[in-house]
Write a structure and sequence with these properties.
This protein is α+β, with helices and mostly antiparallel strands. Helix content is 52%, strand content 10%. The protein is globular. Pfam families: p450.
């Protein structure tokens, strides 16, 4: 067969596939979400999603979803993704936990991260009654639930405000104490990019300092003493983590695989230390209890290290970014805002130390700080919620759309944060003053922490940590922006939806000079 004949044959087959996929198939299944056309079979939108998912999602909403927010479908390497944006459809996804499984999504991520099939069998696949019989080291309500629910219960016990325990307050105080000890001009000089003054790239600086604070809170000083470069290695991993989120195979993500293995080895080394050495100065209630749980279920050391790498990620991926964006927008705003925040937070301080730890969090005490916090969550979060469809399911009205078993549901929250019907005609502009006039219900349209039963339990700690850190930073330091005009503002990377706050675009960090304040 000649080259021309082969080419014509392949082209003919491609035309047949194209007609079937995007013309005949929708006629046969008219209630399935419309699929955004693509060129290469199987690959679908995978390459576009990996390079800039925002462009793909925007194209889908513009061409398929219409003004009534109909669901639409994408195809990525053989996986069907249903993108949901109507409030009633989202409510059904969160309410119907049997048909829309969060556990399925979690398992996909755990497997991509490196959890072995054996560890899955000992945790998520294990009969809930067996989990109950093995785990008796703390007061867990034994209701025949899977490890997924037990793990979340551990998180909630650590991170939820409660009059019954002070676990959240203890963790919060640990982070604040570490920051008050380390945020000095002398100590911060190690991060300087200049010889004769303290000059830093703001994004890198915030990450370097505040990831260490989170590490100390969850793992005590033992981890950094054993491996001082864990925080730096994590920053590399954090930049590449989206490849695990999209479940790229290792051969397509060699840099991610390499740094991940380094971190797993470092966590294995940490857990090989005597338990008393690790827990002696560890303020976290969660860390030792999760370790006891995994040990009781017979999880092997390498898999245990992966579980705790995921804990490290959850604790340190988003909060430093949230703090960075709040500080960056504050420094890019008229100086009066900075003066207002200093004035509002001043009653919480004795000299340079934050001593009244509840003052800043009380409603009405720090309105400017609160508005900046809410606006940064709205403007700079880039999170998604995801579920796996376990059985063919008809969504409630509007429409009668059918989501097929095996597909994944994707809810990109960022699109709602720019809804002009909620946030006004200037929704695409950063404007903290909007929160002075918006109704309280508008806060429900900002979902940086996801939604439903899987909403991030760390949201309370994040708010406490960020607000106190901003107050402490502007109390102790002056920040000089080292750029002319409007060119200083760091550039955000909104090309890939993730699990929280957006990172800075590569090469988009911005420099500041820091001076101590009397």
């Amino acid at each position: 067969m000649s080259l021309l004949s082969s080419t014509l044959l392949l082209f003919g087959a491609w035309i047949i596939w194209r007609v079937w996929r995007f013309t005949l198939s929708p006629l046969i299944r008219p209630n399935d979400p419309k699929e955004l056309p693509y060129t290469i079979p199987f690959i679908g939108h995978a390459i576009s999603l990996f390079s800039n998912s925002t462009v793909v999602l925007t194209k889908g909403w513009r061409n398929l979803s219409g003004g009534d927010r109909q669901p639409f479908a994408l195809q990525a390497a053989g996986t069907s993704l249903h993108v949901i944006s109507h409030p009633k459809h989202m409510a059904e996804v969160f309410k119907n936990t049997q048909n829309f499984s969060f556990q399925g999504f979690v398992l996909d991520i755990l497997k991509a991260t490196g959890i072995s099939p054996g560890a899955i069998a000992k945790t998520y696949d294990l009969d809930p009654a067996i989990v109950d019989s093995k785990v008796d080291h703390f007061n867990y309500p034994k209701k025949d639930k899977h490890f997924e629910h037990l793990n979340r219960q551990l998180h909630l016990t650590q991170l939820s405000p409660s009059s019954q325990n002070d676990n959240l307050a203890s963790l919060d105080q640990s982070i604040l104490s570490w920051l008050q000890d380390h945020l000095t001009i002398q100590n911060l000089q190690q991060y300087s990019l200049a010889q004769d003054s303290l000059e830093v790239n703001l994004y890198s600086f915030i990450n370097n300092v505040f990831i260490q604070a989170g590490e100390h809170a969850y793992f005590g000083p033992a981890l950094s003493k054993l491996h001082p470069n864990v925080a730096k290695n994590f920053q590399i991993y954090d930049e590449l983590y989206w490849k695990d989120l999209y479940q790229l195979p290792p051969f397509l993500a060699p840099a991610l695989t390499s740094i991940k293995e380094k971190l797993i080895t470092q966590f294995k080394d940490y857990f090989s230390l005597p338990r008393e050495e690790r827990t002696a100065q560890n303020p976290s209630w969660f860390t030792p209890n999760l370790e006891l749980t995994l040990d009781a279920l017979g999880v092997e050391p390498r898999d245990k290290a992966v579980f705790f790498l995921m804990l490290y990620f959850a604790a340190n991926s988003n909060t430093p970014k949230l703090l960075f964006w709040l500080l960056a927008h504050l420094l890019s705003s008229p100086p009066s805002y900075l003066s207002q925040i200093r004035s509002e937070t001043s009653p919480a301080f004795t000299n340079q130390n934050l001593t009244d730890t509840t003052y800043i969090l009380k409603p009405g005490n720090c309105p400017t700080l609160e508005r900046f916090y809410l606006e940064v969550l709205r403007f700079r979060s880039n999170s998604i919620s995801a579920r796996r469809v376990t059985t063919d399911t008809v969504l409630p009205a509007p429409g009668s759309f059918v989501l097929r078993k095996g597909a994944k549901v994707m809810i990109p929250w960022r699109v709602f944060h720019f809804d002009e019907t909620v946030f006004g005609e200037d929704a695409k502009v950063f404007n903290p003053e909007r929160w002075e006039h918006l109704p309280a219900s508008a806060r429900g349209s900002v979902r940086p922490f996801g939604g439903g039963k899987s909403i991030c339990p760390g949201r309370y700690l994040a708010e406490r940590e960020v607000k106190k850190a901003v107050a402490l930073l502007v109390r102790r330091f002056d920040f000089e922006v080292l750029a002319e005009g409007d060119g200083w503002m760091p550039v955000g990377d909104d090309s890939r939806p993730g699990v929280g706050m957006m990172a800075v675009e590569k090469g988009g960090d911005s420099r500041v000079r820091i001076r101590g304040r009397e």
